[in-house]
Amino acid sequence: MPPKPVAPASVLVVDDEPIIRANLAEFLQQEGFAVQTAATGEAAVALVAKHKFDAILCDVNLPGLDGIEVLERVATLSPETFVLLITAYATVESAVDALHKGAQDYLMKPILLREVERKLRRLLQQRALFHENQWLRRELSRAADPGEMVVGRGPAMKQIYAMARKVAPTPSTVLITGESGTGKELLARAVHEFSQAAKPTAGRFVAVNCAAIPHDLIENQLFGHRKGAFTGADSDVPGVFAHAAAGTVFLDEIGELPPATQAKLLRVIEQKEVMPVGASEPVRVEARIVAATNKDLAKEAEAGRFREDLFYRLNVVVLKLPPLRDRREDIPELVDHLLAKHARAMGKKVSGVTHEAMQLLQVCPWKGNIRELDNALQRAVILGDGPLVTPADLPPDLSPRADDPSAVDELGKAVERFEKLHIERILRQTADKREAARRLDIGLSSLYRKIEQYGIAGERPV
User: Fold this and answer.
1) pTM of whole model > 0.70?
2) Domain that holds residue 336
3) What was the pLDDT predicted at 444?
4) What CA–CA distance (Å, rounded) separates 245 from 286?
């Protein structure tokens, strides 16, 4: 379940009449709200600039900066804060005007305290439901991913990790490229986690699959909408940029964005502001963008299918994930991690794979990359009966392709890479070479020869 808020909802009461201001504050405090007050619009804006409020009750008729101007300032300073305007003029026109300018609701004088409480709680409940829905989407997306962490110690992945750590603390846009199934979202999450370590306040990671959302809904998903923007829009809804706050918006399959949305996304990058559907004024946003694609965006831009100016804005720092066939040294670690995940989920005791099964896994072409490997191991855990996965447990069509040079021409090298990594792993797990030889099912002298042959660091015989 998502974490539940521990602090009471914070409310700012803005009214130039001392009695109304004091009565509202006292009532809301008794109902469990954390309340601050302001007598002028200028004082209210100053408080919003320093503190985060869940909601603001603001009189329209204020000396100096009036309620509508306060509403407009709050939309820029704190777009997630709800504003309820208080008006003495019980006209439909004034209420509609306030709602069109971004207010979530309005109250008419004389104020009924229970109506204030009811409207506040309804708005806060709507936001809580929205946030919970976003949380569930993120968790489902995380659970559907092949593995829940970035795995790999080979030179290619080490270089990518180093770049990710360098760019993470900066506000720079990041573009992750690679074939489908290579783990682009996992790398985006890693960039987000690295970035949050350098920030005083935590932001959220919000993932959007641009290819999975209909074109007529994508802008509403990204930028949100105002109440009344379309049929059924009963209240303001923030988009993913507002929801991410100072976190990360991950735009997967960004090459699928429609041209009109590409233009608006360019404004987000350049101006750090979004225009909710039905809004008349832009809203400031802080989230950094991490985009991903399996397309060649340079060629897409050259062909006119992707905006060239947006491509250059995205192409600042590029993290290129290699296909699994080009990082076979990471396969043993990936196998261990994925097997443990599926065994845990299914309640089965599977501790590893046989030597023959690992050899097969090492030399397959893996055109579906980590996702294909994950599916193969999930099947093996389901169908296998013993503690070790055997070749018989793997998919029957899982074999080296005769037309794949990386799987056939370099078969000997792939087997040697696996053997070295396997010996290193067993040596790390055992303190005694005799025990390591026994587990490897080879003689002690053969183990020493293998250590010497592969130059396993720190393990040469004395």
Assistant:
1) no
2) 326-429
3) 82
4) 6
